[in-house]
Amino acid sequence: MTADIQMARELATGAGEVLLQVRQSWKGSDPKELKNLGDRGAQEWLAAELARRVPGDAVLSEEAEDGRARLTADRVWIIDPLDGTREFSEPPRDDWAVHVALWEQGDLTAGAVARPAAEVTYDSSPGHELWTRSERPIRLAVSRSRPPAFLHALQEVLGAELVPMGSAGVKTLSVVTGECDAYVHAGGQYEWDSAAPVAVARSRGLTVTRVDGSPMEYNRESPWLPDLMVAHPDVVPALTEALQQVDLPDSP
Fold it and tell me: For Mg(2+), which residues are the binding ones (predicted)?
């Protein structure tokens, strides 16, 4: 494990501990208040730690202004202090996460995704074996609260099973662990929604691309990414063919 991967892991885990403390000490009744407290607490902790540990690195965060200095920086940390605010605000749900990734001169070189309430952190360290897929219908990770219409069409074409769950990071991790065979997102996300999960997924031997097969790119001028596919390599041919038969939503 490189020093940067270790740091990504420590940062994601540490921010997760902050979020658990926020959740445990909250005495209010408005879920929106809990969401805001979580976002703010994790962002402040991560910002302080990054400034202390790597003061020369740039940062792109969901919860901070994009200062644009990252566009000329060699190293950029891409973070989502709390991925899945809805799930975080519904104790005891555990399908929310913290994302910490490092982009260096053109590609992701480190990443970690913590699931604090599940007491686990995944990182992009090498040496992990790809899980073996059994013969069964393809399982697709899908939003539990806002499943997009195209996924139902994709399910029909593939004869797939839909597995509902919370945050974007958790959906990608479901393919990392073998709970699902693929996660397909269309309609747009931001770089912080996928950077750390993508780094982890790549380290496990999963196929990670845009839905058209082109590579994922990060630290672009606009942090908006149109789509994402994370899949076990065995299902990629069938998934690619099926995606050509469904109408995908346009990115806003």
Answer: 62, 80, 82-83, 193
